């Protein structure tokens, strides 16, 4: 088995002096999708931000064997880490083309790939990104990460608040990306996790409480209930989804089988 | 009619000066969140050194003025970039310390300039045409106003082209919106900070040389006086908005001229206008919603 692309040991993260990631250790294999799971507020996004140095952190983070935990964020990204943030964080006042141009780091950015994966975005390249629907904004956010050849993608809740049709499109784009680059994926939608993830890492209270193959977790309802506080509604009818033609801010989150707050604590 | 025209064009000339100072303030605040109270010092040192070099090359001529302007812009850019690099860079996200250090720098440099060039204004020579007037619809307009307006328009167009057509401009526009996401795209946004300071310093430097043409003198307090109005303009226009700064510069200066002429209370009216904007539209004319 090849060396993992990302090795995290004893990672701690703080926001405004508050510890939000506590002694987290796990590995991301050099291929496939590793899902980072957990209930709301357990520190998944903070873990991603700690890896990138977007919040105060300590501990060891190795990318392809090299320490990156002392580097500033832009240097970490330049080492080949693509980032798709929660809530898209596209630049609303810039055009779609400008958003993509800003993200281009490589000498030969993969514009053809973006054009093929996101034809709708390509057609709207002159449009101000802030006027796009939530789904289109998510495509721009994904496209910004995929336009460069990366060694690792950190993707934070890419389907949050999107209609089922758009969720499927996002999943297709991620599946295509995963064929060439390993992905660490924070995701609430168990259908998407089932479709994409090879391995899972579950956080609770800022700590890792489960690591294993995706099937080990997803095929075990009791584990899902224990660690994520939900049952896998794979066979259930999907919940009502928002209309993705509306502007981004109008979308309520409506994942199908999503990980939510639960009164039951993990054992 | 001629009085109104005179006041409007004189106001536009003064507004041009305000804009040259406020454009840098606005860009710096927009990208970095830094309220730069030392900005007036960039203007003053550029005015002094521009004048020193210009008068040695060819005092009171167009050639001398051009040299003054170029030297002023370079000095303003270099001093501003050095200030960012050596002082401000260590204090990002520490707003109180930033304010303290820039206020301190502003006060210390005024004392330094007084030590070097004295406390009295030094009267400057300018090309003869700039001392003359041009009659338009019966109003005798001082020619230097046209120079100020033309220079400010060129600076505005230059900054807009830089922001719209260059990669650094793209980074700055994105950084004004979401600085940490720019970093997360692999871009060293701090390099842009230095560039923005340099651009702001260059505009202020040009403003310093033109202020010496407008007022007819250079003094250690030249920057401090203009800085107050530039801050007012920046707040009224909307912190971080270059277009807002341009519009507010014109509005404030024209209002100031009319109020001065009819009631002798230009400065008071400007402060009232600032208070009104803060009460009615705190984000300014074109500022972002908080």
Automatic annotation (TrEMBL), chain A:
Residues 6-230 form the ABC transporter domain. Residues 236-257 have a biased composition (Low complexity). It comes from the Bacteria. Residues 235-267 are annotated as: Disordered. One of its GO terms (molecular function) is ATP binding. The keyword Lipid biosynthesis does not apply. Keywords: Amino-acid transport, ATP-binding, Nucleotide-binding, Transport. It holds the Pfam family ABC_tran. Belongs to the ABC transporter superfamily. This is ABC transporter ATP-binding protein. It comes from Agromyces neolithicus. The lineage of its organism: Bacteria, Bacillati, Actinomycetota, Actinomycetes, Micrococcales.
Automatic annotation (TrEMBL), chain B:
It comes from Agromyces neolithicus. This is Branched-chain amino acid ABC transporter permease. PANTHER family: ABC TRANSPORTER ATP-BINDING PROTEIN (PTHR11795:SF442), BRANCHED-CHAIN AMINO ACID TRANSPORT SYSTEM PERMEASE PROTEIN LIVH (PTHR11795). Belongs to the binding-protein-dependent transport system permease family. LivHM subfamily. It is found in: Cell membrane. The chain crosses the membrane at residues 6-27, 34-51, 63-87, 99-117, 146-163, 193-218, 225-255, 261-280. Keywords: Amino-acid transport, Cell membrane, Membrane, Transmembrane, Transmembrane helix, Transport. It comes from the Bacteria. Signal peptide: none annotated. It holds the Pfam family BPD_transp_2. Its main location: membrane. The keyword Metal-binding does not apply. The keyword Lyase does not apply. The lineage of its organism: Bacteria, Bacillati, Actinomycetota, Actinomycetes, Micrococcales. It is a multi-pass membrane protein.
């Amino acid at each position: 088995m090849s060396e993992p692309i990302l090795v995290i040991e004893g990672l701690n993260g703080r926001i405004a002096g508050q510890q939000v990631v506590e002694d987290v250790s796990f590995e991301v294999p050099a291929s496939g999708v590793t899902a980072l799971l957990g209930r709301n507020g357990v520190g998944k996004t903070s873990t991603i931000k700690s890896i990138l140095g977007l919040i105060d952190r300590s501990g060891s983070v190795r990318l392809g064997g090299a320490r990156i935990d002392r580097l500033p964020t832009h240097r970490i990204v330049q080492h080949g880490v693509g980032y798709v943030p929660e809530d898209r964080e596209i630049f609303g006042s810039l055009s779609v083309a400008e958003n993509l141009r800003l993200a281009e780091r490589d000498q030969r950015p993969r514009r053809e790939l973006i054009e093929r994966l996101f034809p709708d975005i390509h057609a709207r390249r002159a449009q101000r990104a802030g006027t796009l629907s939530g789904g289109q904004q998510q495509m721009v956010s994904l496209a910004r990460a995929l336009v460069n050849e990366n060694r690792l993608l950190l993707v934070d809740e890419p389907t949050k608040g999107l209609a089922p049709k758009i969720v499927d499109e996002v999943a297709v784009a991620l599946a295509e990306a995963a064929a060439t680059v390993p992905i660490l994926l924070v995701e609430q939608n168990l259908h998407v996790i089932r479709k994409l993830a090879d391995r899972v890492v579950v956080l609770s209270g800022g700590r890792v409480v489960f690591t294993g193959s995706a099937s080990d977790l997803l095929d075990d309802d009791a584990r899902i209930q224990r660690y994520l506080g939900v049952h896998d509604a794979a066979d259930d009818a999907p919940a009502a989804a928002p209309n993705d033609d509306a502007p981004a801010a109008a979308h309520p989150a409506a994942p199908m089988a999503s990980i939510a707050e639960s009164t039951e604590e993990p054992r | 009619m001629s009085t109104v025209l005179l006041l409007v064009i004189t106001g536009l000339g003064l507004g041009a000066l305000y804009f040259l100072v406020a454009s840098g303030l606005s860009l710096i605040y927009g990208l970095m969140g830094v309220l730069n109270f030392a900005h007036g010092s960039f203007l003053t040192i550029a005015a002094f050194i521009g004048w020193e070099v210009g008068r040695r090359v060819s005092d009171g001529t167009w050639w001398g003025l051009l040299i003054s302007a170029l030297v002023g812009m370079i000095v303003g850019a270099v001093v501003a970039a050095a200030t960012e690099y050596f002082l401000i860079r260590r204090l990002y996200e520490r707003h109180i310390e930033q304010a303290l250090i820039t206020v301190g720098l502003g006060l210390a440099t005024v004392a330094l300039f007084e030590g070097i060039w004295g406390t009295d204004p030094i009267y400057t020579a300018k090309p003869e045409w700039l001392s003359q007037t041009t009659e338009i619809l019966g109003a005798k307009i001082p020619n230097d106003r046209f120079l100020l307006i033309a220079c400010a328009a060129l600076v505005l167009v230059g900054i807009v082209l830089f922001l719209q057509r260059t990669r650094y401009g793209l980074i700055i526009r994105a950084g004004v919106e979401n600085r940490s996401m720019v970093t997360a795209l692999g871009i060293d946004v701090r390099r842009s900070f230095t560039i923005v300071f340099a651009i702001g310093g260059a505009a202020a430097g040009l403003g310093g040389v033109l202020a010496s043409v407008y007022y007819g003198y250079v003094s250690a307090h030249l920057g401090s006086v203009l800085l107050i109005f530039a801050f007012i303009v920046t707040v009224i226009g909307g912190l971080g908005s270059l277009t807002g700064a341009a519009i507010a510069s014109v509005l404030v200066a024209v209002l100031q001229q009319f109020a001065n002429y009819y009631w002798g209370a230009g400065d008071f009216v400007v402060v009232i206008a600032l208070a009104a904007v803060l009460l009615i539209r705190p984000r300014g004319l074109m500022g972002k919603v908080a």
